[in-house]
Write a structure and sequence with these properties.
Helix content: 40-55%
Strand order of the largest sheet: 1-2-4-3
Order of helices and strands: HHEEHHHEEH
Distance between the termini: 62 Å
Structural class: alpha+beta
Largest sheet: 4 strands, antiparallel
Number of strands: 4
Oligomer: single chain
Number of domains: 1
Strand content: 15-25%
Length: about 160
């Protein structure tokens, strides 16, 4: 009995801390998105006007996964366009860098444009306002720090220059 108790205490005291942050993040958040994160690649790219979030299926043959990714991104862009950042706040917490500034932006000061791609989709975040651009870049930096950013060279053709 003491051995079991010691194992439980050891797991709570050090076991969770030994897991990498990205692994904890992925496991904790996967129920919050409608697609299978293990079957998708996420890429975050900063641009001079904001940034681009790509989410694509690892398999171009996985029509259900692609549909779920596209639905998720379309809904997220629509929510963000209305100033509703509750989904990202639930996922990352209220202290996510850049989030507070994004939440107080006036309608139209930040654009969130969804684009369907053959293997998933993207949201193009853009603004002409320097303080909001800084907020977007902080938000993208935090996303990259938490999730990483998959290299998607086949998608560079969608963005001929970083000025997009």
């Amino acid at each position: 009995m003491k051995t079991i108790l010691l194992l439980i205490v050891a797991l709570f005291a050090g076991g969770a801390a030994a897991k990498p942050t990205a692994e904890l993040s992925s496991a904790a958040h996967s129920p919050l998105v409608p697609y299978d994160r293990a079957q998708a690649l996420e890429s975050f790219s900063k641009t001079v006007h904001g940034g681009i979030l790509h989410i694509v299926a690892k398999s171009a043959d996985n029509a259900e996964q692609i549909r779920r990714i596209q639905d998720y991104l379309r809904q997220t862009a629509a929510e963000f366009q209305k100033g509703d950042f509750s989904s990202t706040e639930r996922y990352h917490g209220p202290d996510m860098p850049g989030l507070a500034q994004m939440k107080v932006a006036q309608p139209g000061e930040i654009r969130f444009d969804f684009k369907r791609l053959p293997d998933g989709g993207q949201i193009h975040f853009s603004t002409e306002y320097a303080p909001l651009l800084t907020a977007l870049h902080h938000w993208f930096d935090a996303q990259i720090a938490e999730h990483g950013s998959a290299a998607l060279p086949e998608h560079s053709q969608h963005h001929a220059t970083p000025t997009e």
